Protein 1
Amino acid sequence: MNAPSPYTLPFVETKAMRHIISILLENESGALSRVAGLFSARGYNIESLTVAPTEDPSLSRMTIVTTGSDDVIEQITKQLNKLIEVVKLVDLSEAAHIERELMLIKVRAAGKDREEMKRMADIFRGRIIDVTESTYTIELTGDGTKLDAFIEALDKTAILETVRTGASGIARGERVLRV
Amino acid sequence: MKITGTEISGDAVEVSGAEIVVKCLQAEGVEYIFGYPGGAVLFIYDELFKQDKVRHVLVRHEQAAAHAADAYSRASQKVGVCLVTSGPGVTNAVTGIATAYMDSIPMVILSGQVPTHAIGQDAFQEVDAVGITRPCVKHNFLVKDVRELAATIKKAFVIASTGRPGPVLVDIPKDVTVAKTPFHYPDSAAMRSYNPVTKGHPGQIKKAAQLILEAKRPMIYSGGGVILSDSAPLLARLVKTLGFPVTNTLMGLGGYPGDDRQFLGMLGMHGTYEANMAMQHCDVLVAVGARFDDRVIGNPGHFGQVPRKIIHIDVDPSSISKRVKVDVPIVGHVPDVLEELLRQLEPQAAKVDQKALAAWWAQIELWRGRDCLRYDRASAIIKPQLVVEKLYEVTKGDAFITSDVGQHQMWAAQFYKFAKPRRWINSGGLGTMGVGLPYAMGAQLANPGATVACVTGEASFTMCIQELSTCKQYRLPLKIVLLNNRYMGMVRQWQQFFHGNRYSESYMDALPDFVKLAESFGHVGMRIEKPGDVEGALKEAFARKNDLVFMDFLTDQTENVYPMVPGGKGLSEMILSEEL
Ligand SMILES: Cc1ncc(C[n+]2csc(CCOP(=O)(O)OP(=O)(O)O)c2C)c(N)n1
């Protein structure tokens, strides 16, 4: 026998990479649980999932961030496409794209920390959207790493609460995902 | 979704949801519906009562309703339909639904649900049917508005029977069966999000034809997809045109005539030596409607050690390159792809390398010469293989054979040489014990007048034994071939091979007297204890055209199924009987 065919080798587990998958699906009750159920039933990761109706109220747009080797991502997209409610999907990570996530963070801002907190929010282009005598609530958007960096930059004991939406994504340039 | 359709009831007379359900079934040409009544579906039962086009078969357990509808479909290529009530009715049916799902069987399950206003209130007999069945259906619906009922049922039939088929559940709250609306049954259901492929990519088919013509050690491997898509004649044309060897999966048996010389038998965990060796050593593999599952390729790494090119034809893209990477994927409806492949290959068939093919066949004949299915024909105790061989002879290979799950299933698959598709009905994917009897019921109702036999084990049969009563009620003259080894034989075999002969809980103690049991249900019972009586008993039983005959064959308790590829092992790493 010659050298083994590269095709019939067992899957060489490629490194698990982060992918951001955008899905247009029927805006029907049950569609979300079908997608979520698919991920848990087949053991795929969900790092984050966001969903909301689009300008066409019969459709929802979902963004899923997942990690997996190439084979796993291929199966994920194939399995998602099999769901009856999935109209279209695209793996945004295959080309240039933009990701944004919104974070609301409530921090302690009393005494001498108050000024410092405001300065940090400014550096990260955050907006203070609610104020009490001892707290600020800051709104921050960006990609996940920027939000992580903001949290890193703060004194941990100052953080009272964080809420993150998970990533939403869209392709750069003229590529669009629509029916 | 877009609905185009004809108005069946002409005027705008309002009818109830229950009547709509029955009218939809009539419009679909449904002949039998398998079911069991209960509170949530009483209005539907009332409508069934008022008509005689759709005939209802009353099973004795909802699991059997799903299995019988499933087998009705397998044996007829129509969509199977079952009807169950809410709560326990649905949960009982789940095993049957999952069984159909794993084997891609087109089926529509209508389930009753508590009234819409009671949903979520933990009402009496409420379960989240859509939630419970979600992972084991192709799709499911909860109908909350009677105006959507007919269109939803149409969608269910379309989704169940197109693309890769599968079960679809329609959950209908009781108040929806009472509410009224005019009835329109659409004749199609276009869904923007559901467009199964048909034609394969022409470029890919051309590449496949090229590879096939260059093959030195070719092999054709076909599965349940050939049966489901009614492509057996096309497969036979391909095999005959090329002169290649062919093997079938457990689900694919009957896809190619079992007694033909080019047929190497079933492959996989209990496949023949020649089929597994040819699969392992071929240089070009054509996979048709098969999915390289773990009972066929237990160890993809071992399989990949031999260089070969793989062409894979399947309607479901997610089946391709899931466990084994392929060179030429062709996503398409199997008959469309085979048609096109044949159109390209037939004029060029002379290009097949006949010298190489002859050498390959010589190798295969050597493997075949191992006679891997050999067993002790001189045994004083009945060998289970003998019973299946005689069953094949007595029925002239022309029966519908259902089986349960275990050793008997494998012997039936190995020794009954299926000549035609849809004759072999078993649970390949889920491996559900208990299917045998309800499967036989569905197969018989789909083929009145045909010979239907159920090859079963005493453990499996006991799981749906209550259906003997259904068989009496509907006068189903089934022939039950019980290979009674007083063990969960397949479990015992694994315990012998892999668990140091510790037969933990696999002995079937306290078995009933099956002859008396059959008689108590109003059937004929026979017990056969000697090899010399096997043939005569079968002849006698099959001569009783109008009776259900239960044959209790006392078989060798220690017999094992060979060859065997242990789980996770390579195809060529078989345990053969002679090696033990
Ligand atoms: C519902 C269900 N439970 C358990 C199993 C596991 N199982 C597979 S084969 C088998 C034994 C079957 O025994 P029997 O029906 O007597 O057939 P035999 O193997 O003896 O021919 C068991 C328990 C199964 N397949 N299905």
Protein 2
Amino acid sequence: MDGHMAPPLNLEAIRADFPILAEKVRGKPFTFLDSGASAQKPRQVIGAMVRMMETAYANVHRGAYHMSEQATEAYEAARGAVARFLNAGDVREIIFTGSSTNAINLVAHSYGRGVMKPGQAVVISEMEHHANIVPWQMARDAHGLELRVCRITDSGELDLDDLAAKLADGKVGLVAVTHMSNVLGTVTPAAQIARMAHEAGAKVLFDGSQAAVHRRVDVREIDADFYVFTGHKLYGPTGIGVLYAKGALQEAMPPFLGGGDMIAEVSFERSVWAPYPAKFEAGTPPIIEAIGLHAAIDYVTAIGMPAIEAHERALVDRAMARLPQIEGVTLLGRAQDRGGVFAFALDTAHAHDVATLLDRAGIAVRSGRHCAEPLHARFDVESTCRASFGLYTTPAEVDLLADALQQAREFFR
Amino acid sequence: MSGGLFDDLRDLYQEVILDHGRKPRNFKRLDDADRSARGDNPMCGDRMELFLKLAPDGHIQDAAFQGRGCAISMASASLMTDTVRGKTQDQARKMGENFRALAMTGICPDCGGDIAEDMERLAPLSGVHDFPSRVKCATLAWHTLNAALDGGAKEASSE
Ligand SMILES: Cc1ncc(COP(=O)(O)O)c(C=O)c1O
């Protein structure tokens, strides 16, 4: 993969871009290993949002005056940046939403209920985030869809034989699976999954909330029908998410929310929907957030997604080499293809106790079930700690985690 | 040899707590329980089921629990089942109220009188007040106790 030939990151310069990394926690340097929950923001993103509010802000698509035209242009330029980031063929395939959660709910509503027929099935997997489980349960209950759950293997990879079996009867209308697990770090073989889904007559949605942060995504290369990610994990602001959806599908789908901006014509008798993607962007959109997301995309693109992928892979390899050597530490899943996220457990202490100890050392990890309760049930563990890396994570921080875990094991003998 | 890194956490993880967390007392199902309730902190994955045996006059004759959770939640349930045994329901509720205040603020508003000795035993858990995200671990058992005393049909949560 091209990632492995990328030049190393200039970590010192990168870290200087993130003001929060200079903060101290309980007198210790802030070791932030929870980017998978939400990433920190570089000055470039913060600055772009402030600049917009100070110099170029107004509502979009509404005013026939200079500021509104400027804001509209900036908002649409952000759409263009997202399209290039995902290598979409057409900017109109990019819908701005409030988050990944909103984007998946949009598809569950407008495609799951709006296009799919009762009796058809949706396939998800055992390693989904709740955001890619619950909307399908709601669509199942409201619209008579069937929900099928594709198994994962003990190493934490999608069981492709099981996927084939789940697709075999031709009743599946949509395969909705993660492109990268937020717990195990597993990257799924998206192109292969899409091929299998398409051969069975199904469409495919990838939850790219994690994947889009850790590697280059090309929606045309993998032939995704829907692709979802969220701004705040990509060093951008909260309040913005992205849904990539092929034009023909958007054409066929009824709107999700009704309101301003999504209509071409309104009378009290009826409304005519605006052409896509506007028909899926009801109300005032996250304008400032779109500007922030654009800056975040420019930021990671300038560093290079392949370089970021290689950097994080090296960090994971380092962690995978050190952690299993600590007595009592186990790792959840052992996927071959993975990004900068992994979950672990200590035999003598609950994840919460471990997280409290690590916090004392200035280290922030997530503990609990990480919005993936069924996955924890699958591995028969109550809860885990999860470390996740960002482009600013250093090898020294991985060592710090390992050292602190060693001491935590001694504390909870 | 616990490593200097975590020495200041000994206030939170006092030896009593580690001991009760590791070897919880009254950790069993009471087959002849008169009341029971489940407690759940969905975010942390703490889960317990509490069993109460009531005497004819209504006081708590026996208390036991089962479950999985962090050291704090297990120790709290263990200490709670030890201390409410023999108490009237009103005394147990009053202890719970005071314990919640203790866990949140580190100060016990009304810990004298007939519950003084028992509140003393619970005092090691007061260290959680410095750890806002962990307070609910300590209070889960007491929320579950209230649910059991209220009739036990519903699920308790300290979130
Ligand atoms: C894999 C995955 N899917 C979906 C989400 C939901 O993202 P958001 O909360 O921004 O909607 C997350 C993050 O929490 C995630 O990791």
